[in-house]
Write a structure and sequence with these properties.
This protein has 214 residues and is α+β, with helices and mostly antiparallel strands. The protein has a domain at 4-128: Alpha-Beta Plaits (2-Layer Sandwich), CATH 3.30.70. The chain contains eight helices and five strands, in the order E-H-E-E-H-E-H-E-H-H-H-H-H. The chain has a five-stranded mixed β-sheet with strand order 2-3-1-4-5. Helix 3 (105-120) links the parallel strand 4 and strand 5. The longest helix has 21 residues, at 19-39. The chain is globular and about 55 Å long.
């Protein structure tokens, strides 16, 4: 039986939003889901969709694109904060290609991971039933999150632009500031460390196969 990656997520503190604000953010979230389903279509087993309230879920064919999907959601809905539970393992499709008509250990693990993330107020939690793998991944995510919590809006924008344009010079030209100003912003905020950690995460998820124990 093949193993899959189930991602279940929801909006942080959505119940504290006013009715109009919540409605507007739900529209933004729906737009983000459409974009994710299009951009990652080749990696998706069951498309992302809102399942209840502000919770949404989807299924990826493996672990390799999980971090990229999480980071893309983060950018699309900023400054809204999402929490993610990621479960890895077998699923039962029951003849359907939509997540709400699927079940299995990967879904149970993703749901447990999301509940843990909400309880501990962290952004991302993995549950693959491989203790060593989960410890590596979850530790890196906690460290990344602790750095990002200190970022301003301009730091986020420069971090995203650097990921997109790849050089300080191009980012500086796009903002009409000096390359040194961009370097200072990215370096002093810890964004360079975050970028290194994200690259390591992507490699780990691409190359490592957890022992799920099924």
């Amino acid at each position: 039986m093949q193993d899959y990656s189930v991602i279940i997520a929801d909006m942080k503190a959505s119940r504290q939003l006013k009715e109009r604000e919540r409605y507007e953010w739900q529209l933004i979230l729906k737009s983000a889901i459409v974009q994710i389903n299009e951009q990652f279509s080749e990696s998706i087993e069951a498309p992302f969709m809102i399942t209840k309230g502000d919770e949404f879920q989807g299924v990826l064919k493996d672990l390799s694109q999980v971090n990229k999907v999480v980071l893309h959601f983060e950018r699309l809905v900023y400054p809204l904060v999402l929490r993610f539970g990621v479960g890895y393992g077998p699923i039962q499709k029951m003849g359907s290609k939509i997540p709400i008509e699927m079940d299995g250990p990967a879904f149970h693990r993703a749901n447990a991971a999301l509940l843990f993330a909400k309880k501990k107020k962290i952004s991302v939690r993995f549950d693959t039933r491989d203790p060593e793998f989960d410890q590596w991944i979850n530790t890196i995510y906690r460290l990344i999150s602790s750095i990002k919590k200190r970022w301003s809006e301009i730091t986020y924008k420069r971090y995203w632009k650097y990921k997109e344009l790849h050089t300080l010079k191009r980012v500086a030209e796009s903002e009409r500031v000096s390359s040194q100003a961009i370097w200072d912003s990215i370096h002093h905020s810890g964004a360079t460390d975050v970028l290194d950690a994200e690259r390591s995460l992507n490699e780990m998820l691409r190359l490592t196969l957890p022992d799920t124990g099924r």
